[in-house]
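How a chain folds remains the central question behind the approach discussed here. The record that follows shows the chain in one-letter code together with its fold in token form:
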Amino acid sequence: MAIFGKKRRGSSAGDERTPLRPRNNEELASFLKAIHGSNTSPTGLPSQQQQRRRSLSINHRLSERQMKRIAARMQRVPSSLFDGQFEGNGDSPADSTSLVMESLRRENDTLTSRCRKLEAQNVICAAQQVDFIAVVLGFTTCAMFYCGFALCVCRLVDYDDYSCLLARVAIIAAPYIYNKLKWGVVYRRFMVFAVFVVFLARVRLCRWRVQKYIKSSQNQDLSSLRGEESGSMSTGHFGDDISEDDIMEASYEVNARFLYSSILRLRGLWTKTAQYMASRADFVPVGYVRELGKLQDEAPETEWDDVRKMLSKAGILNDFVSIESKPIASASIGQVHIAKLQDSHERVVIKVQHPHASTLLSDDFVSLNIMAAIVGWLEPEYKFIGILLKEWANEARNELDFNSEVANLKTAHESIELMKTTTDMMTTHSDKKRVTFDVEVPRPVDDLCKSKRVMVMTFSEGKRIDDLDQIKKCGVPKEAIMNGLAHATAHMMFVADIFNGDPHPGNIFIRPGTSRSKDGFTLVLLDWGLAKRLPNCKRQGFCEMTYAASTFDFGLMMDAFSTLGLKLKRENVSEDMDGVRFLLRDMAPRGVARKRLKARMKTNIDRTKARKKGEKVPVDSNAYPGEFFFFVRTNELMQGLGSKLGVELRYIEILKPYALKGLKMLTSQTAHRDPDDIPPASIADHELNRKIGLCLNRLKSDGVISGAQVCVVQHENILAHCTEGHLGSLKNDVAVRPDSLFLGFSCTKAVATTLILKMVELKYLSLDEPI
């Protein structure tokens, strides 16, 4: 074999050849061929087909790019790695290759261990330092304001009067006492400010690093300084391979851990914000998804003694045989404990609200409303942000009332039962193999749901939908699971009376089998505190908007905006159609989804720059439906979950039949009048009218038109007026009437073009003349 060189000086007679590192490309090719078999490419690298079949088992399969790096760097492997490994054994090339790869494997394990230690030093320690800076900044700012407040009180109050002295002490102590009684909301506001400032400073610093050290050093060829040939393969010198993405990813890792530790202290609304960010894997960096995802069911817990007091206060503590003191999950509003009922020994779950939840959430919404009011005052176009926050605040207050969640659970259960009776409960992810699925919603135990802060419901088996091991146990592809969830979401949103406004992975469980068979899977939909009930008019509007987007029905899209009460400042239905279709876009793995979103953001920025002042936001801020917030939120969370699972799914095609079904249900009771007869006395030319009527009838019979209206007017006299057929699409049961309205989208373009060509014909202008 070519990699076995000359006889070693001082070796035994039987050891004719000793392993040396490859001296040229031919020996390198032979070495790689020995590792990977005979199916190698002309460059000595294994072919792509061979790479798919074989694995080196060095933690993961080596890619073609990695093999190229090995090929480039094997020239620099120390001779000691090969020398003395195979002396006197008469090892075959395959055995020697195995020993070499074992050495490489040990080196890889050593490097992996060192990388973990470097990560602990450079990432985790950096995050702790940033967190310490934020704490110091928040404490210092709070102390300065408090000292300034105390100083002002001391100067304004007379020292000589004893009663004034007592008043001074009381006024100075009031903020401290209020802070203690209200779970530290005063100090917490300063900490929110500090976290925001430090986080923003780190983002700006990261961008400055990219501008300073990456973009300024691009396109520099240093090969001549190192004695290398220009254009040769990179040998990985220190600092050469650092890219903008490397700096950004390193910053993401530190910032994500910093935000996680900060939100653990802040709690309240910021926990819900972190849960939303962690659910948006389609555009949020991986570090944030990993760290903030812990807060979806691992938020800070309330002590068991406090939980016991709340159960005793609710009068249900003695209704259980046993209660597990350790909660199985803890989120922003409350935590969940497993228990057994006293009478039936049935397993149930007890959801207990955190004592601080109401105070902190209310305080956070006050802060957000103040910020939104300031933004709306500075930029009137963005007043709609206040409307969205008000909608969110109203639903969040309902989420704090567990009696409201009990009612939502009952309605959701009824809606799922309706779905089971009206659909076949089969996924549509593949034409070849459809998978049966089931949907389950916990049922409340009415007798034990007596408090606004404590509720009891049935126990539902399952694990998180993003648990890959659980998906394997189900024995179905990830596409099937996401497809089933999309069906359930579409039914709840367009057909039922309620849908979940917070479908993040911590609120969706899966388990193998269904209630009908051991095959398939069951979806468990949890946490119905943040649920949205839509009035029929709003639900009809969302059905129209979704169906219009799936069929490119521009007229129906305009009807949908009118039904929803959404007013626009300009008429550009093409751009509106594009925006709605992007909201309901196809699901894709993370990499593809991020590219799409970045391209979309760039397009939106360009469009915004091109608009005039006052038209930057196309929506009238005073006529923005608050329900739109939860519609967008739910669909974006679904997109994020699809990207996290790495599935490709035609999302809008799943929504389309449910939107149509909802429309038919909502419009089935609408009365439609028969077409009125056109008075014969108003027709001037009856022969022309008869011919037009026959022509329309023939076109309708041949399927050329669904319906039409023709009116011929000359000198204010109606020569002919005929109607035929129906209005088509969703209004195929509505006959064309003399007063029917037809979509005239882009009709003016044809009129304008005709007029321009006529003016050219009359030589009023030339086609080459700029207008």
About this structure: The first helix runs from residue 25 to 36.
